[in-house]
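hey so i finally got around to running the thing on that chain from the lab meeting. sorry it took forever, my laptop kept dying and i had to restart like 3 times. anyway pasting the input first so we r on the same page abt which one it is
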Amino acid sequence: MWAEESVFYHIYPLGFCGAPEENDGVLRHRLGKVGDWVEHMEKLGVNGLYLGPVFDSDRHGYDTRDYRRVDPRLGDNGDLRGLVERLHGRGIRVILDGVFNHVGRGFWAFRDVQERRWDSPYKDWFHISFEGNSNYGDGFWYEGWEGHFELVKLNLRNPAVVDYLLDTVRFWVEEFGIDGLRLDVAYSLEPDFLRRLRGFCDGLKPDFFLVGETLHGDYNRWVGEGLLHSCTNYECYKGLWSALNSMNLFEIVHSLKRQFGPEGWTLYKGKHLMCFGDNHDVTRAASILQNEGHLPLLYGMLFGMPGIPCVYYGSEWGAKGEKSWGDPALRPSFEAPEWNGLTDAIAAMARAHRDSEALCWGDFTDLVLTNRQTVFQRRSEHERVLVAVNADSEPYVAHFDAGCGRGVDLITGKEHDFGGGSELPPYSVFFWKCE
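ok and heres what got predicted. didnt touch it at all, straight out
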C-alpha cells in the first residue's frame, strides 16, 4: 500500500483558501491556491495530500449539502479535477474527507423531508420521529451527531443510504481520480458499513487508501483485514506533547511499546496508524508545547516512530493556534508558505522517513529511556535505524549496544561512531542508520 511509505500534508481548504465561514452560494474559484503550494509541498518532502472537506456544505464542510458538487466558496468540480491532476503530475497522491456519518440541514434529502414530511421517500434516510419536534421547529424530531442538531445523522442501516454513499465514492474516483478517503468520525460508523465500504473500494481502485478518524479505544475495532487500512493515532498524538511538557519520555515510549513493541501483548504490530503533531481540531504543536526548543524533537519522534506521518499546513514553520480561540484560529489562511529552521528540519526528516525501509516498515524496540532522553530501534529486513532524542537543555551521553560500530545520520548525512557512548547535544534528534 502506497500510503505506508508516504508522508502526508494536511490542508483544511475552506480556511486555507480564505473562504467565508457561512456559505453564501457565490461561486469563487479559490481552490487553485492549493495548487500554488505544490512546490512547497515538494520541497517539504511530502508525497500525499489529505485535503479536508471540499463539497457543498452549510458552513464548515462537515455539514454536507451535496456530496457531488464542490462548495462554491472553493470553486467547481472542474477546479477540483484540475487540482488532483496537477498534484498527481508532481507525484503527490490525494485523499479527501468522507463525511458519511451525518449531513447538514441543507442536505437535499433532508430538505425533502422538511417539505413533504411523512410523504418523503427519504424519511428513512435519517433517524426521525414525527411524534416530536426539533430545536429548529421542524415539526419532527431527528437524531443529531452527539447532540449537534446542525449535523443530521444518517441511517447507515438503510441500504438505500449505503448505496447512495458508495455511488458517491465511485463518482469521486471517476470524476476526480482521488486515491483514498479519510473517514470523518469513523468511530461512529457502523462496522458493517466499514466492511461494505472496504470491499467496494477494493474492487473500485487498487490501493485505494482508507484511514479513519478515531480518538480512543482499541483501534483494532476499525483497522484490519476487511476494515480500514489505518486510523488516527490520538494516543500517541497526546503522548508526544505531554511527554515533552512533563519531561517524562516514559509516557510516549510506553505508548509506543504498548502499540508496537516486541512483547506478545502488543496491540498494533504490523499496522500503520496515521501519526500527527496537530490538525484542524486541536491546538497547534507550537502553542501547546511549553518549550519551543522541543518542537523539532516532537517532529523527530513523529517521523521516527512507527506510522504514517502527517503535517498540518503552517505547523511546518511553527504557526500557532489555540483551540480555545475557536476553530477559525486553527484553520487560517496564510498569504504564502513560510520557511525557517524548523521547516528545514521537518523536510530533512520527511525525506529520511520516505527513503528508509526501517522507518516505514520496521519494528520498535527501546534501547535507552530516561525522563529526558530516549533511544529506540526501528528494524526491518534489510535496515536498522536508531532514533535518539535528548529533550534536556544539557548534553547527555547515551550508552547502549548499537550492534554496529558506525552509522550515518539520515537527517544530516553525517557519520557517527558508536564507540565509547553517543553524545546527544541539548535539544537534539538523530536518525542513525547502522552500517
